Model the fold of this input.
Amino acid sequence: KYCTGKTEYVLPDKTRIDCLTQDYAIEFDFAKKWAEAVGQSLYYAEVLQKNPGIVLISENGEKDQKFIKRLNSIAEKFGITVWIIKPEELKK
Done:
């Protein structure tokens, strides 16, 4: 539902982009793995000359706010588009 492009797109180095659209290379990850998602989204975007994006899955409401704040501060600096969703939204 949240990927309108290709899912699990494989790069020549065998890394996998969770969602590749015309404009974005998007990494999906849980809030506590925000830093890993930053690196992956930037790398994938650079390789394919796309915009970096992260769909951050917030499982723990208020507890995840610290991770969301950290991500947003880095995302703003490096031009990463961020979407925040809850796990149940993935199942719809």
The beta strands are 6-10, 16-20, 24-30, 51-57, 81-85. The two ends are 8 Å apart (CA to CA). The first strand starts at residue 6 and ends at 10.
